[in-house]
Amino acid sequence: AQKIIIDTDPGQDDAVAILMALASPELEVLGITAVAGNVPLALTELNARKVVELSGRTDIPVYAGCDRPIARSLVTAENVHGKSGLDGIELPAPTLALQPEHAVDFIIDTLRQQPEGTVTLVPLGPLTNIATAFQRAPEIIGRVARIVLMGGAYFEVGNVTPAAEFNIYVDPEAARQVFASGVPITVLPLDATHQALTSREWIETMRALPNRCGPAVASWTDFFERFDKEKYGSAGAPLHDPCTIGWLIRPDLFEGREINVEIETQGEFTTGMTVADWWRVTGRPANALFIRNLDRDGFFDLLSERIASLP
Ligand code: BDR
Ligand code: CA
User: Fold this and answer.
1) pTM of the model
2) For position 157, what pLDDT does the model report?
3) Which ipTM was obtained for this model?
4) Given ligand 1 and candidates 190, 239, 240, 243, which is best to mutate, with the most ligand atoms within 8 Å of its CB?
């Protein structure tokens, strides 16, 4: 199985991504690292533990990482995810304890201990933990197999400003370091994730599953959808973060291009923009596989199958 570390700020769509990963035999989740993003760190690490407990996989360690971006103050998204970050269903307080080690130390230690090129990082929130680990222990950079992240947008532009997607916008300095690291990167931007829209039928299928995870997924997507309908006037909740797990398991369901992507950190109106050289006009070397399309039905079939296999 492909070893991964999920770095996350749950978040309803993060929660679905975590469940999907834990249900997938193709992946071995070495740990889950929380970062400040959708809500402050105290809530993202708590939510991560709640989701792990819901999945029944209490063997998965959860670590708390950075509580604020590298060079800016934290911007959160309670307007999207609710006050708890995981509104939609009330989950019990987790019995699973938070690991004492800092998430950044866990990332560094794991990359040092595991054979070179065997660990993939899967960031689902701002890139603060990843960039901090790279800064503190640059020798681990060459040991990372790949980074498969949700973030950015190009043709679909932004969701937090006209030019920027939330995860990149919150910590553009961290994103810049990660995109300049030389690690192979797969980017699941809004261009792709806005195609992963839930349908009413799919949500009802989840609600009807004879387990506890299916109905939880339905409640989260209901909450998430209410937000997006108001904002975008379209039905369905975009399952941004689960697209990363989908790509890891079934890359054939996705299409994109190997291109150069630079992160704007100083724009007057465009800070946090992923400037994607889709038409390859700059001559700058490719540093990312930028996904633009996905097979929606194939993706949701895969997700349903995985959620159905959980407790
Ligand atoms: C991203 O921002 C968060 O609100 C979601 O969890 C997702 O990771 C989408 O822009
Ligand atoms: Ca997220």
Assistant:
1) 0.98
2) 86
3) 0.99
4) 240
| Proportion of the chain in helix, strand, coil states, percent, rounded to 5 | 40, 20, 40
**CA-wise closest residue to 63 among 141, 135, 146, 5:** 5
Count, in order, helices (H) and strands (E) of the chain. 12, 10
Q: 229 near 200, Cβ under 8 Å?
A: no
pLDDT at 281: 97
pLDDT in tens, 113-167: 999 999 999 999 999 999 999 999 999 999 999 999 999 999 988 999 999 999 9
Ligand 2 ion: Cβ-proximal residues, 5 Å cutoff: 9, 11, 14, 124-125, 241
| Candidates 81, 102, 194, 240; catalytic one | 240
* The amino acid at 12: Q
Listed as ranges, residues in the chain with pLDDT below 70 are 228, 233
Q: Are 145 and 119 in contact (CB under 8 A)?
A: yes
Could you identify the atom of ligand 1 that is nearest to the CA of residue 165? 10
Q: Which tokens is 118 given?
A: 């065997």
Residue 102 annotated among the catalytic residues of the structure: no
List ligand 1's pocket residues with C-beta within 6 A: 11, 13-14, 38, 77, 80, 124-125, 150, 159, 165-167, 240-241
Beta partners for residue 149, in sequence order: 187
Site to probe by mutation for ligand 1, drawn from 44, 150, 223 as the one with most ligand atoms within 8 Å of Cβ, is 150
Cα(49)–Cα(200) distance, rounded to whole angstroms?
28
- Which distant-in-sequence residues (6+ apart) come within 8 Å of 233 by Cβ? none
